[in-house]
Amino acid sequence: EDNAEYEDEEEAAAAHFAAILRTANGLTAEMMFVQNQMCPCFPSYWALETLWATCVAHICSKEILEEIGGTEGHRLPELNASQLLDLVAWVENFRETIEESFPNIMDHVPKKSFDGERPELLGEEAKTIDMDVAKDALAHANKTLWEVHDLAKDEFLFRTKEQTDEWLNRVYEVDHTKSQTAEGRLITSLCEDVYSLAGVQLRTIRERLTKRSDAMVQAVGIIFKNLYEKQIGSRNNFLQDFETCCAAANDFIRMSDNCEEIVNDLMEETNLSEASTETLEEQSGALLGLYSSDAVFAAQKIHIYVFEPIEEAISEELFGKEWLDELTHNDLALTLVRTIEDFMGDLEEFLDELMVGKTLEALVTSSVLFYLKTLLAKSSAHTSKTKSVWSNNGRALERIRGDITVIKEFFDDQAESYPSLRRIIPTEFEILDTVYELMTIANGTSQSSERDFVILLQKRVKNIPITKYVVGDLWHLINPANEEGVYNLIDSMEQELVAVAPNDEKAIDVVLARQTVPGLRLDQELAKHCDESRSKRARPGMSRTAAEEGELMLNRWKKTWNKVKAEIDYNLES
């Protein structure tokens, strides 16, 4: 019974508040009718429009202040979000009407504060209107109502954040329906689940507030900020395998499209100030940029799942005895490109066309790094200080050159359909060309200067200890007896390397940024190789100082990897 009585009281209070605002809206709407239709029927000295507006302002402000708990708004927290929005909307509508009817009243400073008193508008013998009192009363009511507006707006914005957080948590935690479009694109219901609710919330705010409302821009900003933060906190959860990455990339693009459509509708249907327009564009731009970068991230993370079967199939045999002596047609490189080619059918069906290009860009980089890391791993496993890894270095170099050509030509062919690859391919394959040339120098079959190519490598790696480790590994493959000599050479070049290609001191921190797709940074992947090789073989001839610098560098990288892994694990658990 007590609960029923409480609910009855709540309903009665809500109905009473709604009636007050409904009446206030009616009185405000009649102000223009009075000005345009009634005033011409009465003598001008009656100042009927001023009299009417002042009475409306006084009555409405008195009733509303009683409802919200005075000028401090003590009872505003008792109102629900819809009531707060209606209150903000009414005050904005009232203010616009006053501005249109009495343009000078906004700058008028009242000489008297009425504080709930009824203004005495009639002059001597009630035959004239005291215009000074009328203006003071109207300006006072207008100012008071705007203070009410700001209090209600702040409470409404707080409530908007709470509501948005609540429904976003629900939306992101549920299992989203998986499906394929008519074109075969993989998608989930994430986009519809998020933007159906966001759209309702934003449309409600837009429809109730005035076209010039700053409160609307602030509310939209809060919703966009919540969408932004929720996307950052949840996006990794959608990237579990090949198909989920494809679906996520498509979902994030569609979310960007939905967001852009909402913003365009807001711009078309409102009359915002230049400052408010810039604010809205800045808020939406951050969210749109996030969705776009997340779509690219998801598309490029696909490289991990493409290379899983490749690593399983060829990593053990690549650079081995059979590769050297029997697989005379670069068979393992062909296996790599044919596996990627097999995935291409799925990529072109499952992914948006633009995202296929982004995935291929990642696969170019991933192919180069896979080949390089596998080559360097061969060096780590080799323990002889005098004999090369292969029985015939010349044939090994021929195989390597052929492998590189096979892989590069495959991507060159793909560039016919995806032109952005023409920019990526030369840049990425430059590292393999540099490594190949260093190996031919180590073999004594090149006229090139090792100094030139050490500099080229450092320009790409931007980390002298890593460059030193990698060059040492290449010499260890081909000419281990001279490994000490190449360390001494790089030590003598240190000032030159710092001058032409200084270390990237921010690289380790940059890896912590979300834009770094796992497995696609050259320096990070090489640092991982160097870290793993520390326990597998000694590096004869490396100076103690160089070794200590290398240890410090690798330990810093290791802390970064652990931090990234901990963050990913935390997000997955959450």
Description:
The chain has helices at residues 2-38, 48-68, 81-101, 131-173, 190-208, 214-234, 242-269, 274-314, 321-325, 331-350, 353-381, 393-414, 421-443, 450-461, 464-478, 483-492, 494-500, 507-510, 522-533, 544-573; strands spanning 178-180, 186-188. It is an all-alpha fold. Strands 1-2 form a two-stranded antiparallel sheet. The longest helix is centred in the first third of the chain and has 43 residues, at 131-173. It starts with a helix and ends with a helix.
Count the beta strands.
Answer: 2
Outline the low-pLDDT stretches. Answer: none
The pLDDT mean sits at 86
- First-last Cα distance: 42 Å
Largest sheet: 2 strands, antiparallel
The count of helical stretches stands at 20
Query: Beta fraction of the residues?
Result: under 5%
Strand order of the largest sheet: 1-2
Query: Quaternary arrangement of the chains shown?
Result: single chain
Order of helices and strands: HHHHEEHHHHHHHHHHHHHHHH
Shape: elongated
Rg over CA atoms, rounded to whole Å, is 36 Å
**Structural class of the secondary structure composition?**
mainly alpha
Report the helical percentage: over 70%
